Please model this.
Amino acid sequence: MSTVLEQAPAATSEAPREKKTTRKIAIILSKGSLDMAYPGLILANAARMMGIDAVLFFTFWGMDIINKKKADKLHAGMLGNPSSPMPHALMGLPGMEGFATRMMKRKMDEMDIPPVSEMLEMLEDAGAELYACQMAMEMFDLDQSDLVPQVQEVITAMDFYDKSEGAQIIFI
Model:
């Protein structure tokens, strides 16, 4: 009668070889406000700087980030933001969103954070993959000519899963 120990292969002095895998991140950008665009763009840029593959999928209001006419005109979404330093009673007043947007953009300029269109160029230059959601394109009556040139392709949600296989997925 043989035991499990008897069937185990003999130990060798060679250390097992570690399988080198490529790290990969997939970021879904679903909101088109200034304060929701930058987290995904900055995370993707940081990933590429570290040699991590980055796939970005823009859907629903996130389409504004890659819309030629809107990319550099995004507004800060203060109303309904519980972390806003502005009192909630003031956030809904006329002009407050514009004020908050100007303040945020001024601070970003001071910190040398590039505008959205430049961030998209940097991501493309760094090898990130940028994709638009086909369903959102149809919902908002957009076509490829409405998008910034850095968008590689318009794809379905199923295509996104194929392109992001093995990646950590972040939804913003």
About this structure: The chain has one domain: 22-76+89-171. The chain has seven helices and five strands.
